[in-house]
Amino acid sequence: MPNALVSSSSDALQLDNQLCFALYSASLATTKLYKPLLKPWGLTYPQYLVMLSLWEKDDCMVSELGDRLFLDSGTLTPLLKRMESAGWLQRQRDSEDERRVRVVLSEAGRALREKLAGIPDCMLQQSPCTLSELQALRLQLQQWRDHLVALIPPASD
Question: Quick one: which H or E segment has residue 102?
């Protein structure tokens, strides 16, 4: 099957012709723009994503949070430990099943929501796209991601 992203097979392995590289480098650039916006609160970009998720659904299992953020427990657990040390959340053993850990926002974590409420507007102001263009791009990327996730074989334990 011909590569639809390039005009000839000789261009197929050029870095700038790779969709994966465009996505990767755009993600890195986006993360770098978030860094100075989050720095005053001592948050990293992955921690910001955790907070966004918990502001939507507080008091959830670590496994739910990992599924929502596409992070495995080896990545998520140290992140949550640092966030707990910072006072933004608590990790608690589930009363029904001690093997499961719940994540609950602290008062400081809930209060942080109001302080960070302007960040999406700051990011929008830095974009060359209109809000409707960004919404369409986000929808396309979510659909692309969901398609790819469906192709990933289940992990064998």
Answer: strand 101-105
CATH architecture of 39-115: Orthogonal Bundle (1.10)
Residue pair 138/129 in contact (Cβ under 8 Å)? The answer is no
First-to-last CA distance in the chain?
A: 34
The CA distance from 147 to 68, in Å, is 16
How does pLDDT run along the chain (157 residues), one tens digit per residue?
444 565 667 789 999 999 999 999 999 999 999 999 999 999 999 999 999 999 999 999 999 999 999 999 899 999 999 999 999 999 999 888 888 899 999 999 999 999 999 999 999 999 999 999 999 999 999 999 999 999 999 876 5
Burial 41-80 (b: 16+ CB within 10 A, else e): eebbbbbbbbbebbeeeeebebeebbebbebeeeebeebb
Alpha helices in the chain (DSSP H): 19-38, 45-56, 62-69, 73-85, 107-115, 119-125, 131-151
CA 62 to mean position of chain CA atoms = 15
